# Entry
Amino acid sequence: MIKRTLHYLWGKKFAILILALVLILLPNTISHGMQVLSTTVITQMTIDRTGATIHITAEKFKPTAGEDHISYETVEYTGTDIRQMLADTSLAHCTNLQFTGAPDLDILHALYHYQDLRGNTTVNHEKTMNELLRNYDETAH
# Structure
C-alpha cells in the first residue's frame, strides 16, 4: 500500500512541487503588508548641505487603503550621515534628486553604493546619476 502510494506520488512530482511552494510562500504573502505600509518609499528628494549638516526634503508615497489614486506626502531628514538618515527608506522609486546648487558627488556616491537608488535617476533634471558618477570616478583616478 505504501509502496503503491509512493510510486503514485513520484509520478506527480510537478504537482507536489507546486503544492510545496504554495504552502511555503502563501503564509509569507499573507503576513507581509505592502512595502508602502511598512517602509518609507521616496519618489524624489531635495538635498541641501550646509557644512557637515545635510538637510533632505523628500516626497514619499502616502499609504492609502482602498483608494485608486496615488498620494504623496513630504518628509524631512536632518543629520550628518546620509546613510544613517535614509537607513529605513527605499529609494528604488526615486526618479529625481535635486541639490540646492551643484550636485554633491560625495553624497551621490554614498547613496549609489549604499541604497537601492537607480542609475537612471536624474540629478537636477540634467544628467543621470550614472553619467555624473562615471565622470567623478574618471577624474578621481
